[in-house]
Design a protein that fits this description.
about 80 residues; two-stranded antiparallel ribbon; 2 strands; about 15% strand
Length: about 80
């Protein structure tokens, strides 16, 4: 499986996401969903010393919000 990149998203979707169109933002969020889940994975150790992995939903929400704000407020398209 190849690594996902911003180049994999069509330019028209990126332009619409910068304009704040909800379908384009949803497309970008779904494109980076697995990466966001990887970043949100946490490990804790129980009283017996076993490691358990879980996905922190709060971190997912924060990362998604930061991504959307970054796209809408700061993203610049250079042709």
């Amino acid at each position: 499986m190849s690594k996902k990149k911003i180049d994999d998203i069509p330019l028209s979707i990126i332009e619409d996401a910068v304009k704040g169109k909800s379908y384009a933002l949803q497309f970008v969020l779904s494109h980076f969903n697995s990466y966001i889940k990887t970043l949100s994975t946490r490990v804790y150790e129980d009283e017996c010393g076993r490691k358990h992995y879980y996905v922190d939903e709060d971190v997912i929400s924060r990362l998604e919000a930061k991504l959307v704000l970054g796209i809408v407020n700061k993203f610049v398209i250079r042709y």
